[in-house]
Amino acid sequence: MKSILLLLLSLAAAHAEVRSVTLGIDVNSPYGIGEPWVIIREGLLRLESIESVSPQPDRQTATGELRTKKGLVPDVEALAKSIHEIGAGASLRGVEATIDGRLEKRDGQLVLRVSKADDVLALEPVTQRVQLQPRKKSPEPLTEVEQKAFQNLGAKWQGTPLDVLITGPITKRNGKTVLAVRHFDFQADTARETIK
Question: Comparing C-alpha atoms, which of 24, 92, 20, 21 is closest to residue 63?
Fold first, then answer.
């Protein structure tokens, strides 16, 4: 009985709504994100909402990966404040997440319902990536597929909620969390890596 309970708990954890979070971080270091990452990582791990932080950043795109506890949607404003206050000369450029949820429509707008916390994220078209181009200080360009992802997602809407996995930048505006659709997949229950 105990082993069945442990199996069920591990399966529930495997289907967390927020699968991964990518932080775009700007630093005041001529050596890039690699040098201050240890301090940034230690500071992030002190946050109650953070489960784990990657040991190394992606130096090419000036990003770092983390996971939130219980797969909850990250608080973008709290992350920005924490990174600034860590004292590593860093600031949060952007946050991207890969999130499982239910595609719904509210007041004529597509939304993603994330059931664990009953969060409802407004959806919008993606305008830029969180990842930087290698050796440049500008965002990686969006592909044509990414530019049309929101439009294509809307075309799939048939009037009934759908389970979907969406990857894109998260922002907070007017007290609401907004997810820009860069990629989506209706195979939300299949395991996959974070899109880079």
Answer: 24
| CATH numeric code, 12-185 | 3.30.70.100
Residue 59 DSSP code: T
- Residue type for position 99: I
Enumerate the domain spans of the chain: 12-185
**Residue 166: closest CA among 96, 115, 116:** 96
**Which range among 53-67, 76-90, 154-168, 178-192 shows the weakest confidence by mean pLDDT?**
178-192
Q: What stretches of the chain adopt beta strand conformation (E)?
A: 18-27, 50-53, 63-68, 90-106, 109-114, 119-125, 162-173, 176-181, 183-185
CA distance 95 to 92: 8
pLDDT of residue 99: 95
The secondary structure of residue 54, as a DSSP letter, is -
Amino acid at 179: L
Measured CA distances, 52 to 44, 48, 128 (Å): 9, 11, 26
Please give the distance of CA 80 from its chain centroid, rounded to a whole number: 14
Segment 19-34, tens digit of pLDDT? 999 999 999 988 889 9
Which helix (H) or strand (E) segment holds residue 41: the answer is helix 37-45
